[in-house]
Fold this sequence. Notes:
The protein is of the alpha+beta class. Among the domains are: 13-76; 157-268, Immunoglobulin-like (Sandwich), CATH 2.60.40. The protein is 13% helix and 31% strand. It is rod-shaped.
Amino acid sequence: MRLELPQYHTADESLRQVYAYLTRMVGKLNYALSILDVPDESSDAGIRAEDPNNKSIKLGKNSTNTQYPSAKAVVDYAVPKTREINGKSLENDVVLEAADVGAVPTSRKINGHTLDADVDLDAADVGAVPEDRTINGHALTVDVTLTPADLGEATYVTETGSSGDWTWRKWNTGETELWGRLIVPTLSAETPWGSSGFDYKTATVTLPAVFADANYTAHVQIARTAGGGSALLAATQNTDKTTFAVPVVYPGQYNINNIRFDIYVRGRAAEEA
């Protein structure tokens, strides 16, 4: 809205002064109206009005103050009160909480520690065994494998295995045990045992392990002989680190080519290369 005075001409000097005064008053009223931004269909671009400090103010179309925002401009471009932030209208100050943004509140706890600071969990927080705990002197910083020595055993088995007819067991003392069952071992030629009516053969047994020397012990039991006969074991004779001989005495009328030996050997194992 804009006020205008009708054109008025007079020769009376007093009336001209009154008209000039009214013109100034209308200008001030138009300035006040421009602040309120009352609509006006007329185009008045370029008209100037005076502010209360008698400064010239540039007025745009519809007497809009181009130097100071009008109330209408504020209404047009301001954020409306009905606008919301996370479901809260702007009618009042907005204070967002953790729940408004889907955040974990700082009062939440992890193993008793609040989240208002970084959380460092230790073994006690999760009920774990601390790494410096030991089992028989072994710290739990790595996997622990206990040996009989950890339990106070002086001698214990370190390795067991089997291959073919043989089974073995190694001890921490360096000794090795071997046991096996051999059928039809290598036999020598039959030899009469004097005039006693007995013959004998020598069975050669080759061990699957190498001993440190020939001072191992070998025990052989003859389980059976072909034809149901019997045989006598004279003694074992160690010939080297891996071989020993077994002289077998039997009645001359029996064939012992299908003989079975149960063997047990124990000795100190040779150092592995």
